[in-house]
């Protein structure tokens, strides 16, 4: 029966083997893990901030009748450029 500490250590060892960072020095491991952590945090942050608005726009484009009556905003109407 494994406890939480043993499972976390096992998962970290698997992560080291899969990414091949087990052959680096400790300072290199910390640098690479920091970069991976930074990229993961940026991915989660951008998903939480930008993805909801993108999904709302996509749903409005796919099903304009189900969304509010913003059909005029989604249609393209070419306009003539007035000359000076």
Description of the structure:
The protein is mostly helical and 84 residues long. Helices cover 68% and strands 0% of the residues. The model has no long low-confidence stretch (mean pLDDT 82). Belongs to the SPTSS family. SPTSSB subfamily. InterPro entries: Ser_palmitoyltrfase_ssu-like (IPR024512). It is a multi-pass membrane protein. Its main location: endoplasmic reticulum. The chain crosses the membrane at residues 31-51.
Radius of gyration: 25 Å
Record field, number of beta strands: 0
**Topology order in helix (H) and strand (E) letters:** HHH
Calculate the mean pLDDT score and round it. Answer: 82
Number of helices: 3
Query: How much beta, percentage-wise?
Result: under 5%
> By helix and strand content, what is the structural category?
mainly alpha
Summary, kept brief:
By secondary structure, this protein is mostly helical.
Sequence-ordered SSE layout with sheet pairings:
Elements: H1 4-19, H2 26-62, H3 71-74
Question: What key attributes describe this structure?
Answer:
single chain, 84 residues, mainly alpha
